[in-house]
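Give me structure tokens for this 196-residue protein.
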Amino acid sequence: MFKKFDPSEDVSTSTQVKASVQRGIKSQIHASHPNLGEAVLDELLPKKPPLVQYKIGPHLMLYCKQSPDKGGDEPVFFQHRDGPILPTLKFVHTYPKVEFTSVTVDKGAIPFLLGGANVMCPGLTNPGGEMPSDDDEKNGLEKGDGVVIYAEGKELPLAVGMMTMSSRDVRKKNKGNGIEVSHFLGDGLWLTEEIQ
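Here you go.
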């Protein structure tokens, strides 16, 4: 999604997010990442200054924090179509103690992830891979859930993406694409310091 992203060419319009819309964004983030409490979200995304929304292409929104000292806006979250609102990797690296919904892939998946490939099911189920556990009634992760992707033996995440099947199906089928990667280390969004 951001493999060839260039903010000078790909960003079309920007608008300041209204307070009511920003509350809606916070509630969507909280629904996607239930470990984030209201207090943590208020600290990460304060009311002042408000977020700025940038439109990228026909279906992608990039939410940025205004940084008056830098002169530009710092990307913090993004959303593709009506999918989950996902954090940028730089934002996750800035706040490593914040517990976003996450998975861990085995060491064999690292080079593929750094190349922008999607996460295959065996990368999540092999020794070294981890996903939230499934209950009798509820899946640990549902199809369409946004996740931050860590790698075995690494303390900071390598990518962010969306589940293409539930965690129960990933464990049962153990074949095919498990996570669609939206943003990874070294892509255009990672290389973007700020948007002007």
